Amino acid sequence: MLLVFARADVELKPGGYFKDVIGHWAESSIQLLYQADIITGSSATTFNPNRQVLEEYGLIDIFDGSKFEPKKLVTREEIAYVTTRYSQAMEVDLSQVSNNNTFTGKNQIRKETVEAIGILQQLGILNGTNGKFNPKGNLTRAEVSKILTLALMKLSDEK
Known about the structure:
By secondary structure, this protein is mostly helical. The protein contains 5 helices and no strands. The protein is globular and about 45 Å long. The two termini are 13 Å apart.
């Protein structure tokens, strides 16, 4: 994906210069995803990188088929699961990637997501703090932007 943006014949999308992400730790990921038409700003000049991810992104509670919660905030373990499942649906071969999840506190992680978190951890897409993953923590728009950018780059290498 980065090679596409490095080509001289690629026209960049107008706009997307979000004033509220200048100097933000996820600035480059946000700008890249905007140019790739994967995300949009909350206005022409703002992105609100620290706002929580809501239902407008089409993410649902993937673990409880009997209960649809469109307004539920996305958790770290849910985005790991969705990212890994999407990669598999796009026929990315993850069989050579270790699913060894080395985070402590695995009893706090849903059993359905332990391997997905491990795969993304081994690929360097997800990390924790002091050896902990914080699976129930909600994600901000900036954090999702960073995860999506890393996933697109790393998983395209795996494909």
